[in-house]
Specification:
Distance between the termini: 34 Å
Shape: globular
Largest sheet: 16 strands, antiparallel, barrel
Strand content: over 45%
Strand order of the largest sheet: 1-3-4-5-6-9-10-11-12-13-14-15-16-18-19-20
Number of strands: 21
Helix content: under 10%
Structural class: mainly beta
Length: 348
């Protein structure tokens, strides 16, 4: 199996040109761009209490693609697909579902009025006030067959990709407001039986400081809503050190007490030792429980760990080797992930 994974990633590398650009880069590209992103992870766990001991059989292959481009001066499109995971059959049986992940993460077309206003239609990620949710899935720390061991309950449990309308307005270079009317994750199929979700997000970019804030309504049944309030702060202390703090509260529509409210706080620090190696430390705290969506554990939860990314190629960051060690106080296990991701970008 290890030999197969090495061959798979090597074949991706051989297809790339020496001057190919990575998806990690921010260069604007005209026309159409296709990114192919294979990733493999090995996820052994180690008992720290009464568990059954180590398990070295947790192998997780994933494959993403991103197709994006422009049609003329005003129209752009974005298609993000998730083709392979630990149980790939789940991705395809959930086609056109709102309550679970499928092989289509995002698929939208957008019209830019060239005055700061953009109007779009399709499948989007919910506009949430969280830098954890703002990051791409293939950059998540420690992907295993049950989710991410270094991510929040909300990240692991909430279905954030939904069909609907997206409107964004950039007031200036620093402030952008996004409003969405999307399908509700409580509906089995989009907009059926007439369930919607509503999202309003402010994004601020001020030199070294970035801010996200959002209010979100999720319709659980006709006229009844759960709500989410989220905010995120990210600050670049130096060119090498960045800190991020996310806070999120989820409240049930039928809450009878504090146990129906879920709260999470997550702090992350990333330090680049060099152009080829960066380290990330993360600590999370959660309390409460959401009965309607199954978030949280009801007790105080602590999790944390460290991860490292290494880019071995000489002239680009297309190949990433990564490792993560994480612990969670609700499990008598510690997790270690080692893996690799390749970013192949083709322009047309």
């Amino acid at each position: 199996m290890i030999s197969f994974c090495a061959l798979w990633l090597s074949s991706m590398a051989l297809l790339a040109q020496s001057d190919s650009s990575s998806l990690n880069e921010d260069d604007e590209q005209a026309g159409t761009s296709l990114s192919v992103i294979p990733r493999v992870d090995f996820n052994p766990s180690f008992s720290t209490g009464d568990g059954e001991g180590a398990d070295v059989n947790w192998f997780t292959p994933t494959l993403y693609t991103v197709l994006e481009g422009n049609i003329g001066e005003h129209v752009s499109y974005y298609l993000s697909n998730h083709w392979l995971t630990y149980h790939p059959e789940d991705l395809y049986k959930n086609t056109f579902h709102s309550d679970n992940s499928s092989w289509v993460d995002m698929a939208n077309i957008n019209y830019d009025f060239n005055c700061g206003l953009s109007l779009g239609l399709g499948k989007y990620c919910m506009a949430l006030g969280s830098f954890e949710e703002d990051a791409d899935d293939w950059d998540a720390h420690s992907i295993s067959n049950f989710g991410s061991t270094l991510a929040s309950s909300f990240w692991n449990g909430m279905m954030v990709y939904e069909w609907g309308l997206n409107v964004s307005y950039a007031f200036d270079d620093c402030n952008t407001l996004t409003a969405q009317m999307l399908a509700s994750p409580f509906a089995e199929k989009p907009f059926s039986p007439g369930l919607y979700s509503y999202h309003l997000q402010w994004r601020g970019e001020f030199d070294r400081l970035s801010i996200l804030a959002s209010g979100n309504l999720l319709e659980t049944r006709r006229g009844t809503y759960d709500y989410v309030i989220g905010t995120g702060l990210q600050y670049a202390f130096t060119d090498r050190l960045t800190g991020t703090l996310d806070a999120l509260r989820y409240c049930d529509a039928d809450r009878d007490g504090e146990d129906d409210q879920f709260f999470q706080l997550q702090a992350t620090a990333q330090y680049a030792l060099s152009d080829k190696l960066d380290l990330t430390g993360r600590f999370g705290y959660e309390t409460g429980e959401s009965y309607s969506y199954g978030l949280g554990y009801g007790d105080d939860v602590f999790y944390g760990g460290v991860s490292a990314n290494y880019y071995p190629l000489q002239n680009n960051r297309d190949l990433r080797l990564h490792a993560t060690a994480a612990m969670h106080n609700q499990y008598d296990e510690a997790w270690l992930t080692i893996g690799a991701t390749y970013f192949l970008s083709l322009d047309f």
